[in-house]
Specification:
Layout lengths: L3 H24 L8 H21 L4 H5 L2 E4 L8 H13 L1 H11 L7 H6 L2 E4 L12
Antiparallel strand pairs: 1-2
C-alpha cells in the first residue's frame, strides 16, 4: 500500500496539471467563469481524467511520476467501472471520502471509495516490490 503522503503528492501533481490546462484553455479565454458551475465543470474534468487514465493504465500522470498504481486487491489491473467508482470520491467528495474511510476502516489506509471499488493504491517501487503496471 502506498503511503498517504505519497498519494497526496500524486494528487497534487494531477490537480496542478489539470488546473494549468483548465486555466490556459477555458478560463483565460473566458469560456468558463469562476463560479459554482465552473468548479463543477472542473470536478467533472478531474473525474474523467482519473477514470480514463486509471481505468486504462492504472495510473494518472501524478501516480506515474511517483510510481504508484491503482490495482485490484490481488495486484491485478482494474477496469473503467472500478476506476469510475474510485475516481468519483476523489473528484467530488474527497474530504468526506477521506474521513469516512479513516473512521470506517481504521488503520486500513484506504479511502471509502477505494473500498467501494475494491481497489488499492500500490507503491510500485517500495522495498523491491514489483508492480506489473509500472514496468
Amino acid at each position: 500500500m502506498a503511503k498517504w503522503s505519497t498519494r497526496f503528492w500524486a494528487w497534487l501533481i494531477d490537480i496542478l496539471l489539470l488546473g494549468i490546462v483548465w486555466h490556459l484553455t477555458l478560463y483565460s479565454r473566458q469560456l468558463v467563469p469562476i463560479s459554482v458551475l465552473g468548479l463543477l465543470l472542473f470536478q467533472v474534468l478531474t473525474f474523467l481524467y482519473w477514470t480514463l487514465l486509471e481505468g486504462y493504465r492504472g495510473q494518472s500522470l501524478g501516480k506515474m511520476v511517483l510510481n504508484l498504481a491503482v490495482v485490484g486487491p490481488k495486484g491485478e489491473r482494474i477496469g473503467f467501472k472500478d476506476s469510475a467508482i474510485e475516481s468519483f470520491g476523489k473528484a467530488f467528495l474527497l474530504p468526506l471520502d477521506l474521513v469516512a474511510g479513516a473512521v470506517a476502516y481504521r488503520g486500513a489506509d484506504q479511502r471509502l471509495f477505494n473500498r467501494l471499488s475494491n481497489t488499492v493504491v500500490m507503491a510500485c517501487a517500495d522495498e523491491g516490490t514489483s508492480c506489473p503496471l509500472c514496468r
